[in-house]
Amino acid sequence: MASNFAAPMKVIAAAFEESTGHRVRLAFGSSGKIFAQVSNGAPFDIFLSADQAKPHALLNAGLAEPGSAFTYAIGRLVLWSPVTGRVSDGPGALREGGYRKLALANPRLAPYGAAAVQVLGSLELVETTRSRWVQGENISQAFQFVATGNAELGFVALSQVMKEGRIARGSGWVVPSSMHRPIRQDAVLLEQGAENPAARALLAFLRSPRSAALIESHGYQLPVSEE
User: Fold this and answer.
1) What is the distance, to the nearest Å, from the Cα of residue 35 to the centroid of all Cα atoms in its chain?
2) Is residue 179 part of a domain?
3) Domain check: are 107 and 157 in the same one?
4) Is 142 helix (H, G, I), strand (E, B) or coil?
5) How far apart are the two ends of the chain, measured CA to CA in Å?
6) Residue ranges making up the domain that contains 166
């Protein structure tokens, strides 16, 4: 499943196991890599993507159960620094230019990276910042660039830095959702999991009010139809 969803999914899986007695094995990575693995026969039952395109491509290819796709979360983007006070005025931290590197996920591979470029475009900062971009294969790698100091600033998932309803360390600007297309993250039941009652039960649990509260507490929005 999408690497950005690791923290909430670990909690959801533990709650699901406690409630049902089923056991869950989680595999995290970039949505693109997991999509390729599933397309080549990897033995997964469920796919939680960071976008909508890949689950629907699997449906179109006959590799997922028809009608099983749904949006489980809408991602939020944050411009973040591990340094307290560094991102105190939102876009001003980008305009001031007091940084060498700006981390983001590869916009050709990752929806969070595409959203970051859309934000920079709305601020008219694409060309002035492009030479400073350092691109991760996925949002987890982009986060690591900033967390380890290889980039002073970075566009990361709010879920990566949020704890108990606030940014846990450093400083950040939570990007208004209106500045980029919604990062709608879809789940789908894969062909292999179609006959697995535990897989169906986990997807149902993911849509429950209990899971919704956990998802929201980790910095995601919920789709209106799921609230």
Assistant:
1) 15
2) no
3) yes
4) helix
5) 22
6) 77-174
Helix, strand, coil: what percent of the chain each, to 5? 45, 20, 35
Residues in the chain: 227
Q: Are 116 and 203 in contact (CB under 8 A)?
A: no
**pLDDT tens string 42-80:** 999 999 999 999 999 999 999 999 999 999 999 999 999
Do 157 and 191 share a structural domain?
no
Q: What is the CATH number of the domain that holds 25?
A: 3.40.190.10
52 residue type, one letter: Q
| Mean pLDDT for the stretch of residues 124-136 | 96
Count structural domains, the chain.
2
In a domain, 35, yes or no: yes
- Return the sign of the alpha-carbon dihedral for residues 63, 67, 72, 78: positive
The answer to whether the CB of 151 falls within 8 A of the CB of 115 is no
Q: Give yes or no for a contact between 157 and 3, defined as CB atoms under 8 angstroms apart.
A: no
d(CA 191, CA 80): 39
Are residues 128 and 140 located together in one domain of the fold?
yes
Confidence of residue 100 (pLDDT cuts 50, 70, 90): very high
Radius of gyration of the chain (CA): 18
